[in-house]
Each structure stands twice: as C-alpha cells, then as structure tokens.
Amino acid sequence: EIDKLGSDFRGDPSSALLEVLDPEQNHRFSAHYVETPFDLSKVLFIATANTLSTIPPALLDRMEVIELSGYTEQEKLVIAQQYLVPRQLEAHGLTAEHVNVPTESLEKVVSEYTREAGVRNLERYVATLMRKCARRIAENPDTPLVEVDSDFVSTALGAPPHLPESAERTSIPGVAVGLAVTAHGGDILFIEATSLRGGKGIRLRLTGQLGDVMRESAEAALSWVRAHAEELGLGQEEMAPGEIHLHVPAGAVPKDGPSAGVALVTAIVSALSNRRANAMVAMTGEISLRGLVLPVGGIKGKLFAASRAGIETVVIPRRNQKDLVEVPDDVKAGLDIRLVDTIEEALALTLSTETPVAS
C-alpha cells in the first residue's frame, strides 16, 4: 500500500525507498540500523496502491505501473462459486451436504450488494450467509439441507445498498448519463441541467460537490454551446439571459475530472432545446473549445458500469479505441460502442431526434 506513505517528525519512508528502488544506486544500499551494505539490484520489489495521486512523483517515476481494472460480474460469479463459497463453507464447519448456494442467489449478491473492483466485500457477504446457515443448522439439527435462495439472501443481508441504476431518469429534458471511474470501479453518473430565465447575461451555477477540473469542464461546455447556438437550433428565446443550473447527484460524494465534458454539453443542450437525451446512451470524453472530444482514462471500468446499468449504446472518444483491447469480449458484445471525434458527432448520438417536449 505504497500510496499510504506519510512523512512527519519520525522520518520520511519515501526518501529511503527512492534509494532502494532506483537500479542506479541500490547495488550498495546501506541500512543505517546495521551499517552493512546490501546489493538490492537483483531484487524485484512489488508495491500495491489504490490511487497514484498520493504517491510522491519521484518515487512513482522509478516504478513500472500495471493497472488492474477489476472483475466483470461474470468473473466475480465464477470466483465466488469456485473459491469463496467452498472456503467459507470450510471456515464455518459446513459442507455442500449442509448448504446449497444456487447460481441465482450468488448473482443477486454480486449485482445488488457489491460494487467494487475486487471481491473482498463479496467474500464478506458470502461469510454472512454461511453464518446464517450455520445458526439455522445449529438451531434445527434435523434440517436436511439449507437452501440459500433469493428470499434467504434478502433476509440475511437486509436491503441491498446498490440497486441497479435505471436509465429512465432521462425521461425529461436536461438529464444525461455520464460514465465515471471511482476507487471501487466504474459507475454511471446522472448529470442534470435546467434553464432559469431572468437577470443579465447567462450565468452558470454548479452543485453536487464538483472539483475544480469538472467545474472548468462545465464552463467550457457552456462556452461551446453559446458559440454554436445557431448551429444547434437555439434561438434568442432559448439563449435569453438567465441561469443554467448543473447538478450531479449524489450531492454528498465529491466528483472531479474532465471526462464528463460530453455529458455536460448534452445536458445543457437538452435543457435549452427541450429535447430529451437518449435514455439508453451513456457517454464519456473530455471536450475542448474547438469542439474536439479528447481521450480519457478508465474506459474498461466505465464500460463495465454501462453493462451493469443496462445501457445499450456507449459514446467514447475515437482516440480511446486502443483501450477496447482490454475490455472482455462478452462486455463489448452487449454494448454498441460508438467512437466520435467531435462534439457534433457525439450530440447526434446522445440527443433524441424526437420533437422537443412542450414546456
């Protein structure tokens, strides 16, 4: 966990690691505790981290970074069947003769109770199920077999913390579906926009705990829309002085990064033109004032999130096409992935062609 390094009055571990990890000087690393030089040039050091942002830049420069995006739901299901369930059965003194966990129940746990890149929480939930089974068997020794069905899962684990997001929230103009990456993997992000008339000029209000980079993306999105209002079919009435309010739920979760640019433009144009965004289309991509859609990171995790949410079409920058190699074939097969170079190309896919909704 090298991203947890800290420096204070007790010392700075990163300074020692600079010498340990640098192949140019670690052939005679001297430990001050024993005052004996060690040859570390042939040693392979493996460090882990949840984020690269907190690793000192000089230390990160001496490392080869290998990113692991996480598992698909199908991979988690197989891991649970082959490893987690047998291990937890043994840990709780049970066997397959005592407990039966069907595939449908594990699918419910994976899809509704876990939203992480790994399987740590999944194993915790499986362990909880095994404890409930062990208690039931202890209370009724004559029980031939405990069936862990869907009702058993709901009773044992309680209300699911992660219900699948629905794209139905785009049924009104001004709502677009973006894609984001968090420490727990990919997620879909709803971006809401509304237009308020009155005042002088067009002002922008941003809520939802947005970071500086995302705020700048919103300002760039509004500037591009104002510069291309005529091409977008926005007249004087739509571009009249007023306020455009952009909100990104959930409000208690901080959000930052440039990859929501396309979704921000879509939400603004949708709100101003009163046209709905396409419900089953999710999007990601940084934008420029020249109208270009620039590449972003985390494509694999974002496509996983779109697949989980039931999204049909995903709009990504064309320069991210190289990242599709990392995405499993079963995920790509379930999505219509569209590559775009410009904001105009993106809007042609993200905005509905239906007649504007009456105000």
Question: Overview of this structure, please?
Answer:
By secondary structure, the protein is an alpha/beta fold. The protein has 11 helices and 13 strands. The chain has helices spanning 13-21, 57-60, 73-91, 103-113, 120-139, 150-157, 212-227, 261-273, 299-308, 329-333, 343-350; strands spanning 29-31, 36-38, 99-100, 146-147, 175-182, 185-197, 202-207, 242-247, 281-283, 286-287, 293-294, 313-317, 336-340. The strands form 4 sheets. It has a 7-stranded mixed β-sheet. It has a two-stranded antiparallel sheet with strand order 1-2. The chain has a two-stranded parallel sheet with strand order 3-4. Helix 3 (73-91) packs across helix 4 (103-113), helix 5 packs across helix 6 (150-157) and helix 7 (212-227) crosses helix 8 (261-273). The longest helix is centred in the middle third of the chain and has 20 residues, at 120-139.
How is the secondary structure organized here?
Layout: H1 13-21, E1 29-31, E2 36-38, H2 57-60, H3 73-91, E3 99-100, H4 103-113, H5 120-139, E4 146-147, H6 150-157, E5 175-182, E6 185-197, E7 202-207, H7 212-227, E8 242-247, H8 261-273, E9 281-283, E10 286-287, E11 293-294, H9 299-308, E12 313-317, H10 329-333, E13 336-340, H11 343-350
Parallel strand pairs: 3-4, 5-9, 7-8, 9-12, 12-13
Antiparallel strand pairs: 1-2, 5-6, 6-8, 10-11
Helix pairs in contact: 3-4, 3-5, 5-6, 7-8
